[in-house]
Write a structure and sequence with these properties.
The protein has eleven helices and 13 strands. It is an alpha/beta fold and about 300 residues long. The chain has a six-stranded mixed sheet, with helices on both faces. The chain has a four-stranded antiparallel sheet with strand order 11-12-10-13, covered by helices on one side. Strand 6, helix 6 and strand 7 form a beta-alpha-beta unit.
Length: about 300
């Protein structure tokens, strides 16, 4: 097995009396799309800043391309494309100017950058916006430009911190398509997200984080198979009745979670379970059968939802 591009062991980051990252371990292989999934405050962004060589660690070891980012920051950063959580583009400059100036920061030749800009404008679907000032772009366009900018130096690894936060559904799907194309080209992606569907779409493998620790690791489908059932039946009997009917419902399924507004029933066959509920003369106000997701994995591991 080839050596991983990123290797993290016992990584810990402490701010005063608060432990943001608590002794985590993971590897990222070349060409892999690796995710850090968890709610806000789980330690994902802190971990990313340490990987990006913009923050120091309290203890543990980190190796990126066989080098410690704390000791060889500039050398490591030269191989990274970084897409921060907040877009930090220059709003007064045009799309092309933002890409050009960023490329010059890396010491790339004018000839190389000009050719690269054409390639990246096409990738980001911004050819028609090349001479438009960034402040006039939509949120989705700015996000695509930030990713394109991170690719100017042809990095070995692209780090993306919450890449689609704040985007509408259409803009998110366009961005997923762009990132999936990078995956197909063999670019190594490391991303943080609190969107379960994003993790399922983009990640070959991921770690589920909560309160600075890793709760589980695996492929999205592998984690769902290990920690949840094939299907979930969501039923609502009304906020007053949910707890009242819960004991009877619990006898009908493999596992059950009672949320403030609904009951989740875990089963291999949601429609069959719904028929069983109807046969018991129980009539939910609403019902929905869906496949299990990483949200259910997180709920099983922590007892909380990702968006709490």
């Amino acid at each position: 097995m080839s050596k991983p591009l990123i290797s993290v062991r016992g990584l810990t980051k402490i701010f005063g009396d608060f432990t943001a990252v608590d002794g985590i371990n993971f590897d990222v292989a070349k060409g892999e799309s690796f995710g850090l999934l968890g709610p806000n405050g789980a330690g994902k962004s802190t971990t990313m800043r340490i990987l990006a060589a913009t923050s120091t660690r309290t203890s543990g070891t980190v190796e990126i391309l066989d080098k410690d980012p704390e000791k060889f920051g500039p050398l490591v950063r030269a191989h990274l494309g970084i897409v921060p959580q907040e877009d930090n583009l220059d709003g007064e400059l045009t799309v092309t100017e933002n890409l050009y100036i960023y490329g010059r920061y890396f010491g790339l030749s004018k000839k190389f950058i000009k050719g690269k800009i054409e390639e990246l404008l096409e990738f980001a679907q911004l050819e028609e916006k090349r001479d438009v000032k960034v402040q006039a772009l939509s949120g989705g366009m700015k996000r695509r430009l930030t990713i394109a900018r991170g690719l100017v130096s042809e990095p070995d690894i692209l780090l993306l911190d919450e890449p689609t936060t704040g985007l509408d559904p259409q803009a998110r799907h366009i961005l997923w398509d762009r990132l999936f194309r990078l995956k197909e080209q063999g670019v190594t992606l490391v991303l943080t997200t609190h969107f379960m569907d994003e993790a399922e779409q983009l990640c070959d493998r991921l770690v589920v984080m909560d309160k600075g620790a890793i709760m589980a690791e695996g492929s999205p489908q592998g984690l769902i198979k290990e920690y949840s059932s094939k299907e979930v039946l969501e039923v609502r009997f009304g906020s007053d009745r949910n707890k009242e009917v819960a004991p009877q419902l619990a006898q009908m399924c493999d596992r059950m979670e009672i949320l403030p507004d609904r009951i989740l029933m875990y089963t291999e066959d949601g429609e069959k379970l719904l028929e069983q509920i109807a046969a018991a003369k129980m009539h939910p106000l609403t019902s929905l059968v869906r496949r299990s997701s990483l949200e259910d994995v997180f709920l099983r591991l922590t007892g909380r939802t990702l968006i709490e």
